[in-house]
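[Meeting: bench + compute handoff]

Bench side (C.D.) handed over the final construct sequence. Compute side (W.E.) agreed to return the predicted structure before the next meeting so the bench team could plan truncations. Sequence as handed over:
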Amino acid sequence: MYSSLLMILGALVVGYMIPVKHPSALLAIRRLSSWMLYLILFLMGYGLAFIDNLSQNIIQLFSQSAVLVSLLLTFNLSALYFVGRYLAMPAAEPIHKKSNNKLAMFKEPALLIALLIIGLVSGLAYQQQLPAQSVLAEYALILLIFCIGIELRSAGISVRQMLLNRRGLIIAVVMVLSSLPAGAITAYLFDLPLNLGLAMSSGFGWYSLSGALLSKAATPLIGSTAFFADLSRELIILLLIPVLMQRSPAATIGYAGATAMDFSLPMLQRAGGNQLVPVAIASGFILSLLCPVMILLLVNFV
């Protein structure tokens, strides 16, 4: 258990230490990262097929996800809105640009859900565990984490720079502190170990990583719950940004979670202006670093 933890955290650190600047190399790394994610999600779905009382557990999966999403939405936005009143955030100044095709934004989440379902259907049809399935999933996860480390480094922003952005740091800390009670309540309501509930709430919207980590460190059911909960955050923020930004930039940036530095950043910029971009990148970057560390530590040490 602890050796796997060290291998995964080590892969993140080693990846972060490797500077890659050539565009073609970065593109290859992103493609490799995507393929590893696709493989992990397929294996996650395949593993779901072998859970006892599958139909009952599938209902529990979606129930847990719905409760966790609702609690995170309530706790995160309430805490971020309150703290945002005292952060002296720059006023949102929308940048008017031609809107991207919003349907295209849902293409990737739809593909990931489809892969999970394909894996589940394949497992139900084949009715046998795949040879070396757990080993394959572990190595795919380690390679994914390694690629993520390189991609974080390629953003050209040091941890020191992020920690010096006071507003971004405060927003990230508030996000963490307001997420943990949601996980604890979910664990209590569904009679889960407290550490798993806390771990499920520590994905901060990074569904591609949280689901994979928890499927490997816990069970496919727990991993799938985290996947759907964090995927829902990304879909919800698409709807909230235009409405919430004028009311509370801090709540908008914070609820975007780890995606504030990549997926959500263009939308945050259009809705709030360039002056909010450094805060969003800092918050998203810190949460991206904390996500794998917190999940693994909670699963293994709490």
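W.E. noted at the follow-up: Residues 58 and 260 are 30 Å apart (CA to CA). C.D. will use this when planning the next construct.
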